[in-house]
């Protein structure tokens, strides 16, 4: 007995659950499957095109389909522009702190530099943060004179970075001892911020006249040389 045969006896066995129901594939089923597959492939092809490439296809493709993908691409561009809305290291003062840092960190990552102009390491850090702000525009970079942020904050702890995300402090870096003081490189600070999740490598932009840098992480995850100071009560 062949259970696949369409016989009266097999029909009786199927009716009583002895044989599984026979699945019949019609020509319509084959046609519908082929159409769905073709539509899926066409959708994947169009999704990979930018606005200029979509414009070039206007004479070849259905206008309604192209309009859909053009609007989708414009929405993606707008969403990225809304996210990458910063782009510079901004000076703030004590009255601005709650609005520009504490409240703003609920929506974006914020990197705060406590500094003094008279300290060479602070000038170095300001230069690095200004460049990183141009590269990672979805993250907000601000600087504030140390004693305006925390009264009587010792110069010996400068430069100090406070990193905020989701409304809370996520990290703090006191001094540049870990990175060799004045021998610190921009990539050292960049990797530190990456480790906290404060900057997104996928959104990195190249600086004018400069190619993309090596984004590899340091192998040393130890805290050697990094000093911490309980800052939460002074802000």
Which structural class do you get from the secondary structure elements? alpha/beta
β content, as a range?
A: 5-15%
Q: Describe the main β-sheet briefly.
A: 5 strands, mixed
Question: Residue ranges: pLDDT <50 for 5 or more in a row?
Answer: 215-229
Q: How many β-strands, per DSSP? A: 5
Sheet with most strands: strand arrangement: 1-3-2-4-5
Percent helix range:
40-55%
Radius of gyration: 30 Å
Terminal CA distance: 84 Å
Protein architecture, described:
With 235 residues, the protein is α/β, with parallel strands linked by helices. The chain has helices at residues 8-15, 27-47, 51-56, 63-83, 97-103, 120-135, 146-149, 186-196; strands at 89-91, 110-115, 140-145, 160-165, 168-174. A five-stranded mixed beta sheet has the order 1-3-2-4-5. The chain starts with 7 loop residues before the first helix and ends in a 39-residue tail after the last helix.
What's the structural blueprint in terms of helices and strands?
Layout: H1 8-15, H2 27-47, H3 51-56, H4 63-83, E1 89-91, H5 97-103, E2 110-115, H6 120-135, E3 140-145, H7 146-149, E4 160-165, E5 168-174, H8 186-196
